[in-house]
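Q: Fold this one first, please.
A: Sequence and structure below.
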Amino acid sequence: MLPNLEELILSHNKLDHVNSEAFYGLSNLKKIALQGCGLVRVPMEALRRIRTVTTLYLDNNLIVDMENVTFRGFHFLKNLRLEGNLLQRVPTDALSGLRSLEAL
């Protein structure tokens, strides 16, 4: 596929969900931008396939809630944007595995 791709910008497209195979073969991906896509939940099934992401933009979507294990295993994630969603709370454990997080 595109094994050298480091940035994937899909912002402001109409993606109400992301298929679990969407990022298959993108083993060097560092940045994923999914702002303003109309997502109703964090696409964890797709994101779990790539452990190299350091920047994830999910702001300005329609995300309502998160599970306790949402970002488990994302040790390299440094930047996470969630503003502009419909979140009323974020479970403490949802962010507990983000050891490298610098900006939220």
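Q: Good. Now the second chain.
A: Here it is, same layout.
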Amino acid sequence: MTYNRVGVFGSTGLLGSEVTRALVEEGFDVVPFSRIKTTVAGIVTQELGSLVGFDVVVATVGHTGMKEQIDLIQRAKRDGVKRFVPSEFGIDPDSAAAQAPFFQPKVDVFRALENANFPDGWTALSSGFFDSVIGSFVRTDLQSSTITVSGDGNVTYPFTVRHDLGRVLAHTFKHPSQFENTWLRIANGWLTLNEIAEIIREKTDRNLRVKQAELDGSTPVLQLLEKSGWNTFDRTRQTKDLPLQLASIRDYIGR
């Protein structure tokens, strides 16, 4: 049976706002939760309260708020929520990278989720780097006619459009029995940062000079993956059997 009422925790963030917008477009009754009083996808946000009557709760918090999900999971289970979607949207738990201490909060949250034993279980998404971070990995300065690529630039990574993650979740909510306790690995495309730099050169139609910059703490996940030779997930495990036409990541480069 199709879900109807969906709560989005972290709805005002870069990911949460796009997930909320996609779910609204797909016709769900969406409640965006936030400590900040604002509007998301035309809906006024609410502070987190009772979750009675919600079919599913989606968490879209960032790394610093990861462990807040444990209290949210307990509240959702107590109030009768059917399914919980944790704020994964990144590293595949089966990948080598998932064992790094940096990602321990995700491990703790997922353990709490499994122990909660929701009536319809959980659905989790592993993704590539979001479209919103491309500009921080490959920086364009038209004034100096340069493109600065972070790190080596030759490693192929998955990239994922945030709005499409919302569309994927919408599909799972329309067919909940098919995605109970299921991981999906979503990418809109696989590119090296050097390839992204070339796409920017093509789009600007200018002979921009490409230079490399050492990775630092401003891009911690990229720095960790490149230093260790890891990736967010194995390309051979990418989910490809969903009946959705995902956007081309090229369209999000150089915006």
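Q: Anything worth noting on the second one?
A: The longest helix spans residues 104-116.
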